[in-house]
Amino acid sequence: MEKDPEYLPDVTVLWQPGNRKKAVREFLARLAEKRELTESEKDRLDTALDDLYDLQSYTFKVVELSDTIDEEQVAEIFVRINSQGVTLNQADFILTLLSVFWDEGRRELEEFCRASHIPSVSGPSSFNWYIQPEPAQLLRVTIVLALRRAVLKHAYAVLRGRSADTGRPSTTLREEQFAQLQSAQKHVLNLTHWHEFLQCLERAGFRGSKMISSGNAVLYTYALWLIGRVDHRVPLDRLRETIARWFFMAHTTSRYSGSFESRVEQDLARLHGVPQGDADAFIATLDKIIDSTLTSDFWAITLPNGLETAASKSPALMAYIASLNILDAEALLSTGSIRSRLDPSVTARKGIERHHLFPRNHLKNQGISETQRINQIANMALVDWSDNIAISDRSPAEYWPQQLTDKQLPDDRIARQRHWHALPDGWEQLPYDTFLQERRRLIAGVVREAFDTLSDSAYRPAYPTPSVPAPRTTTPWIRVSQLLDAGLLTPGTRLTPRNTSLQAEAVVDEAGDLIVDSRGYDSPSPAAKAVVGSNANGWTFWMAHLADGPVLLADLRERYWESTAADEN
Fold first, then answer.
1. What separation in angstroms does the CA of 32 have from each of 26, 46, 208, 254?
2. Blockwise average pLDDT, block size 10, the chain, 569 residues
3. Which residues, listed in sequence order, are joined to residue 516 by a DSSP beta bridge?
4. Contact status, residue 524 vs residue 514, Cβ threshold 8 Å
5. Which helix (H) or strand (E) holds 395?
6. In sequence order, which residues have a C-beta less than 8 Å from that of residue 159 and are 6 or more positions away?
7. Number of other residues whose CB lies within 10 A of the CB of residue 483
8. Residues with Cβ < 8 Å from 345, sequence gap 6 or more?
9. How many beta carbons lie within 10 A of that of residue 111, not counting itself?
């Protein structure tokens, strides 16, 4: 910057006595040696430097607090000021109350979340392959367990100890509510509870974060697990079975997307009348909600309709892959099981892939060129990468008989694989749209079969222990603009550092640049460097705040890779 005439490397020269005009002239002359300046650009630059000069007259507004006011008033003033400036959410306000009245609890919450990102070699930790929560997310779980609230603005009022009679904060009431919060957070951050709950996701067929499209589904299911375990003392085996079914239902139906706070309040209301310690009543209430949600119409109509998409992380698709894990299905035309190949710690593409059953170029030769039609979920199957190469772009009628001959698998094994992979009779000869419609119906049947398996107390998933994270063998250059084009991000998406101790924010603009402090950066790493002052991997630095919760940019990049890999097939 010091050598670049586009910059004024030392702005203090403007405020040296009698030096302002000279500094402006020298800046413009230096820039004119580099490139030609129009009169309008000279005027614009002159105005910009005038605005900079006027910083010396900027009025800072200060709220000076008397040293006699109490902590309650300090917290209230902070919330009122910030609610008018930088937009804070209700979780931020509650975390502020924690900082004032229970700072140790906030630090414990933040440490638990930080530890969830990094594998521990020194002992048990919150690290896992499903979710790396932010403090604000786990705070929601604590509030549900402590106060049976999901709408945070109501929880904020309760934690302030506002009296129902006077409408004014009461120190006694506040202390009572914080005591409940402190008790609940001990359970939320209990590593035994945390990892016992995550086994429910494993039982439900979900192997890692790549299969999770809703962080809210994980967190609010955890809240229900805690209510069942802590308040109603449900035995672990029984609770694991029911919570696995609940998570499968909640994730597949997008139960906690959109107006999720209202939905959680409804679920909590259904549990309101369950007596403390009544395990049977708790399980019966959840089972009733599950059964009333996953009706015959859901399996016959709603789920097949949900499969009519090309979204690479559709809840319906994740339900189908989870179902293949539950049923211990094999990859199509392979002897290897799918769930043993979906190691959440492995990021290399080779191993198992989603492949077009009706190849892209074959469909294009048939006049079908729309990506949305070609990449339909019902046109994709999980195969070994070597089979994917062998299939290439040949028509199903050509490659399918040849593959059956080459593999020489027993007829009963082929029949089981055709069932798991929902292949209609004579599918290779069917018209494409007829094939899609028939396969969606059969996929829904496989998902229902797997879901019913979760009710079998004898079912015990046997997953290999995840290995140490393996490095990606190839790393194609991806730009944020490509994530915008793919619909994984939208202009205006807010980004914050994964490290919650760093106070910074970026916004994605329409060109895919990251705007930090009014300056644009064309990739995540320079934007991260602007925050920390040193080189940083921006893809693992920034969290994107999406409708279903925060997602690491690296995870969005991974989704983009997966979708482009499917396109290449």
1. 10, 13, 57, 58
2. 85 91 92 90 91 88 80 73 63 87 94 91 90 95 97 90 78 93 97 96 94 96 98 96 98 95 97 96 98 98 97 94 96 90 64 86 93 95 71 86 92 96 97 98 98 92 54 59 87 88 86 88 88 85 84 86 62
3. 519
4. yes
5. none
6. 94, 97, 147, 174, 177, 178, 181
7. 21
8. 129, 208, 466, 467, 468, 469, 470
9. 14
DSSP 139-198: HHHHHHHHH----HHHHHHHHTTB-TTT-SB-HHHHHHHHHHHHHHHHHHT-HHHHHHHH
Show the tokens assigned to 18: 């009698």
- The answer to whether 389 and 356 have CB atoms below 8 angstroms apart is no
Q: Quick one: CA dihedral 79, 80, 86, 90, positive or negative?
A: positive
Please name every residue paired with 508 in a beta bridge, in sequence order, or none if there are none: 514
What are the tokens at 260?
């999720």
Burial code (b: 16+ CB inside 10 Å, e: under 16) for 164-190 equals eeeeebbeebbeebbebbbebbebbbe
Would you state the pLDDT for residue 471?
A: 41
pLDDT at 547: 77
DSSP 399-461: HHHHHHHHH---HHHHHHHHHHTTPPTTGGGS-HHHHHHHHHHHHHHHHHHHHHHTT-TT---
CA 333 from centre of chain: 33
Instruction: For residue 225, report the phi and psi dihedrals to the nearest 5 degrees.
Output: -60, -45
pLDDT tens for each residue of 242-271? 999 999 999 999 999 999 999 999 999 999
For 432, the token pair is 């494409």
pLDDT at res. 467: 45
How many Cα atoms sit within 13 Å of 483 on the Cβ side?
Answer: 27
**Closest by Cα among 422, 265, 352 to 565:** 352
pTM score of the predicted model: 0.72
DSSP bridge partners of 435: none
Retrieve residue 511's tokens: 């060109």
CA–CA distance, 568 with 319 (Å, rounded to integer): 24
Tokens of residue 213, six digits: 């499209």
Q: Which residue has the tokens 């604000």?
A: 136
**CA neighbours within 13 Å on the CB side: how many for 164?**
2
Q: How far apart are CA 400 and CA 464, in angstroms?
A: 31
Structure tokens at 497: 């550092």
Backbone angles phi, psi at 415, to 5 degrees: -65, -40
User: Can you give the pLDDT at residue 163?
Assistant: 74
DSSP states of 459-501 as a string?
----PPPP-PPPPPS------HHHHHHTTSS-TT-EEEESSTT
DSSP structure class, residue 89: -
Number of residues written out for the chain: 569
pLDDT computed for residue 389 by the predictor: 56
